[in-house]
Structures are given as C-alpha cells and as structure tokens.
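BACKBONE STRUCTURE TOKENS:
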Amino acid sequence: MSDSRVLVVDDDKIILNMIKSGLEEAGYEVIAKSNGFDALVSLEEDKPDLIIADIMMPRLTGLDLLRAIKNNEATSKIPLIFISAMDQAKSVQEGLDLGAVDYITKPFKISEIVGKAKHYAAISK
C-alpha cells in the first residue's frame, strides 16, 4: 500500500476514471480533477506527490498548468507526467522542456501509469 497522493487531471471523464481506478487499486490516494483550473486550486490544499495531466484540455491546457506549477515556489518541485495523444509530439517536447518528468501516450496501459507513478512519487518524497 502506498502513502503517496496523486493528482490526475483529464477532461475526458472515461480516461480520468480509468486512471483513478487503476491507481487506487495500486494503493494510491487519488485526487481527480476534470480541468486545469480545478487542479490549480486543489494543489496547495491537497499537496500531491505527483501530478498526471492531459496536455490537451480546454481553457487551461496541461502546458499552462505546468507553467503555473513551476512558477509557484510551493508547487514547483512536484513531478508532472503528461498524458498525450501520439500526434502531439511538439507539445510533449515543449512539456519536457518546461519541466515535465515524463509522458505517456494514448492509448496507454494502466500498468505503465502505475509503474511510472511508483517511480516518480517515490522520488518526490
């Protein structure tokens, strides 16, 4: 059982619930948000050890979310993994350049997400 808290952000409710369920089955406490604005609001209160976020979301993209996280001293050290469709290679590279620690392409295997969560959540503690 993990004592790590993971914030998952995706505007696709099916994907959000799939990731949430998989991480909870692996023992993680999961905070699920369907948009970047709600994720930003919850960061200081929920204090996640890891963030997994979609790149393409309306209004506040995953890249915008990452910029806001990195510009806030209280949240700048939280590792962020992007989830992206394969046709977003430029966005993935931009995210890595901004400080994302990794990315997972859609479609994904939940075992890949759990494995990366285990690795990066442990590093952040």
